[in-house]
Write a structure and sequence with these properties.
2 domains, Cobalt-precorrin-4 Transmethylase, domain 1, alpha/beta, 5-stranded mixed sheet, about 15% strand, Methyltransferase, Cobalt-precorrin-4 Transmethylase, Domain 2, 5-stranded parallel sheet
């Protein structure tokens, strides 16, 4: 198996993550494919796409990409949803038919005890290192043996770039794949806060400072969304492998520090914000109000999601926020 530096999957993962930081990057290259310059028919998206070989390289002209019929291994990429209670009937059917089941727990909370009861078969936990540094080696080896492999993922399986990278690698090697969508925190955190999904802006993640560097991208996202009167949904750093779970109060403090340096009036104490904690579990909470008050609440349940409400919310949204917060703001 290639090392992390040379692995096609690792390379794809880096490209996906770059698109997260610069989502306009894909659109910037569309419509400028070499095929159109040569007078060849464009692909449906106007992009030049070379067929990958089974080993992740580029297939020679005239060669045939192996189909799922050539190699009978198949990956089932299954969304657990907000908790195992959200697994769909289709998800349970695919799990029952799988030869091997893996569960990823580093991108979100998973009640493994409850999951084990409803899955009804053995499973193996996989870490971030298993999927990223080792490029899903064990899963790919089972596919090589013709096995049907189910990978269960918190939320929706294609929200995290790691899983999208695995799917493209599986396809490049000629295996079949099937995706079972799951209920995701995007956009559930927004709608459960009482806000309209039609006004959802760009999404960003607030992370802890690394080596003294504070990442300001979320601040910029809020600023852009504000200019369009859109809500800003901010995911907060979470890593189940390392026991890392940022709270909303920590995220707001980071954003306040950025505001103190930049002084652009984006993060103000009177801004309306909402916090959604541990959605999908009995201890979930939804709290909405002015930033100053929300930052002082002791919300312990994780993972948490922070929403900056648009500058001019609709009156119905205000009514809904008051309703859900009065019912579900369970703190202390």
């Amino acid at each position: 198996m290639p090392s992390r530096e040379t692995s096609p999957m690792a390379s794809r993962s880096r490209k996906f993550k770059e698109c997260e930081r610069h989502p306009a990057g894909l659109a910037a290259t569309a419509g400028t494919s070499p095929s159109s310059e040569r007078g060849e028919p464009p692909t449906p998206l106007g992009l030049a796409i070379s067929a990958p070989s089974p080993l992740g390289g580029v297939a020679e002209e005239g060669s045939r990409l192996p189909s799922a019929r050539d190699r009978r291994g198949e990956l089932y990429l299954i969304g657990i949803g907000l908790s195992p209670r959200y697994l769909t009937i289709e998800a349970l059917e695919k799990i029952a038919s799988a030869d091997a089941v893996f569960v990823e727990t580093y991108t979100g909370r998973v009640d493994l005890t409850y999951l084990g009861r409803i899955v009804g078969k053995g499973y193996r936990r996989v870490s971030r290192a298993d999927l990223e540094e080792r490029s899903g080696r064990e899963i790919l080896e089972l596919l090589e043996e013709g096995k049907r492999v189910a990978l269960l993922v918190p939320g929706d399986p294609l929200i995290a770039t790691t899983h999208a990278s695995l799917l493209t690698e599986v396809h490049a090697r000629g295996f079949g794949f099937y995706v079972v969508p799951g209920v995701s925190i995007v956009p559930s955190a927004l709608t459960m806060s009482g806000l309209m999904v039609y006004k959802m802006g760009r999404v960003a993640t607030v992370v802890y400072p690394k080596n003294g560097i504070v990442f300001e991208y979320p601040y910029d996202v809020i600023k852009v969304n504000d200019s369009l009167n859109l809500h800003s949904l901010l995911l907060l750093e979470y890593d189940g492998d390392r026991g890392v779970a940022m709270r909303s109060a920590e995220a707001l403090e980071i954003l306040r520090e950025i505001e103190e340096r930049r002084r652009e009036g984006v993060v103000r104490e009177d801004r309306l914000v909402a916090v959604v904690a541990s959605l999908g579990y009995p201890d979930f909470a939804v709290c909405a109000g002015e930033l100053k008050r929300i930052s002082m609440l002791d919300i312990e349940a994780v993972p948490q999601t922070l929403v900056f409400v648009s500058p001019r919310p609709h009156p119905v949204e205000i009514e809904m926020m008051n309703a859900v917060s009065s019912r579900w703001c369970r703190v202390g």
